[in-house]
Amino acid sequence: MMKTVTKKEVSKRVAKKLGQKIYITEDFVNAVFESLREILSEANPEIRIEIRDFGVFEIKETKPKPKARNPRTGEIIYVPARRKTHFKPGKLLKDILKQPMKKNK
Questions:
Q1: What's the predicted TM-score (pTM) here?
Q2: Is the pLDDT of residue 2 over 60?
């Protein structure tokens, strides 16, 4: 089963790194995520947020699909263009993820 890390746990880790109380860092973590969400949702139609040593968040526009097929019914349907999210890890994160996994015993 996949482990889920919540925003609260991120706040706890930030508090530990900064030697602060969690209620102080929680406000900062919330503000960062809220700001990122606002920037991404304002994309018209595309935007890129680059965070050095972490990665890039992008909103990209998809192409309309005039001849998509409903897999259940086989009916041909039109799918309009929309926006989608994309995350590309930065070099540091990519290098860490490329390392072989350690076996859990």
A1: 0.74
A2: yes
